[in-house]
Design brief:
CATH class of the largest domain: Alpha Beta
Structural class: alpha/beta
Shape: globular
Distance between the termini: 68 Å
Order of helices and strands: EHEHEHEHEHHHEHEEHEHHHH
Number of helices: 13
CATH architecture of the largest domain: 3-Layer(aba) Sandwich
Radius of gyration: 22 Å
Strand order of the largest sheet: 2-1-3-5-4
Strand content: 5-15%
Length: 356
């Protein structure tokens, strides 16, 4: 039996930040020459267009995969999914969740539910199941030195190699009776029309892409309610013949505008480069199921009004008429009766009384 090899991909930071480049290079140097790993470096994952060699390479990878990038792990996972690089969520141990995150961790709960046999979210029912392989996502902002990342990659290798050995062992009886069984890990590349991993030169993989801005859907959270489709007036979203919401014209999205993410009732829309961690894909949740926006704590408008204002700003910039709260407002918000005050409401009242 040949030695198991684990593919490790490092997604570079945008720009040429010296400290970030140094960390990327240190990880590559630590893994270079180790026969257990196949290491590749690509540009910033979020910026890859459909025909970029790095994206085609990712689509052709078979088996388990480790991706390191300058994004939250949940964002990395769903950008890959959007690009046709699908798999099961691989648990990592590089950074323990904060106490506030343990109750409802989007990266963990969303992907773990995908891995389990539990009821799939409505949107995920309309998609083919992911290949039987694991994708591990690491945020390069979680440590300043290469050692923690290298140690975690080595731990992942042991886990993945043991799983591959177990899968191989269960197939031996079938092989003994003369049945030819392809490794299940090949399914990932073959699903994208690539039975073997594509080979590109380092120069081809690192071809500089243009910076992009578009929403990414977390299908493990999406209920296919279509509120994003109704709210966005720039034609970014469409539905498939089966009725599944998806990002169709991503480059029509207005740079810097995350309005559709604010109106999503399940917080399933990610803008990986946005300044707010909750919108960028961080492991943050709400209080009693409510999405918390700091602007609410300091006398600002609520998330829906912010979204409408952001949309109006982009409409006017494009030479179109502002529509305010008259178009695409989620039905769940219409004629909503006032609810009893909870702990958050009481906190807001205290802040108002303090006249901050």
């Amino acid at each position: 039996m040949s030695r198991f090899r684990l593919t490790v991909v490092i997604s570079q930071a945008q720009g040429k930040h010296p400290q970030r480049r140094a960390l990327e290079e240190a990880i590559v140097t630590a893994l270079f020459g180790d026969p257990r790993f196949e290491v590749s470096v690509i540009p910033h994952l979020y910026d890859l267009e459909a025909d970029h060699p790095a994206r085609l390479f990712l689509q052709s990878i078979r088996g388990d995969l480790v991706v390191l990038g300058w994004l939250y792990p949940r964002a990395i996972f769903w950008v890959l999914d959007r690009d046709g690089v699908r798999g099961l969520w691989g648990e990592t141990r590089l950074k323990l969740p904060e106490p506030a995150e343990t109750g409802e961790s989007p990266a963990a709960t969303s992907a773990e539910s995908q891995n389990s046999n539990s009821e799939l979210p409505p949107a995920d029912k309309l998609r083919p199941p992911p290949p039987d392989r694991y994708i591990y996502c690491l945020d390069l902002r979680d440590a300043e030195q290469a050692e923690p990342f290298v140690a975690e990659i080595q731990r992942i290798y042991k886990e993945a190699a043991a799983r591959a050995a177990q899968q191989q062992a269960t197939k031996q009886p079938l092989l003994a009776v003369g049945l030819r069984i392809r490794p299940s890990q090949n399914d990932a590349g073959e699903a994208n029309g690539q039975p073997d991993a594509l080979a590109f030169s380092a120069e081809e993989l690192l071809r500089p892409p243009n910076r992009r801005w578009y929403p990414v859907i977390d299908y493990s959270r999406c209920t296919n309610c279509l509120e994003c489709l109704n709210f966005c007036l720039f034609g970014v979203y469409s539905v498939t013949a089966d009725g599944l919401i998806y990002v169709n014209h991503q480059d029509e999205c207005r740079k810097g505008c995350p309005a559709c993410s604010r109106v999503c009732p399940e917080h399933a829309i990610i803008f990986p480069e946005y300044k707010s961690p909750a919108i960028a894909g961080a492991n943050v949740g709400g209080i009693d199921g409510l999405k918390i926006d700091l602007s609410k704590l300091f006398g600002g408008a609520d998330a829906l009004k912010i979204a409408a204002a952001e949309r109006d700003r982009e409409l006017v910039a494009a030479g179109r008429q502002a529509v305010g709260m008259t178009v695409g407002i989620p039905k769940r918000q219409a004629h909503k009766p006032p609810a009893p005050k909870d702990e958050l409401d009481k906190l807001l009242d205290q802040l108002d009384a303090a006249e901050l």
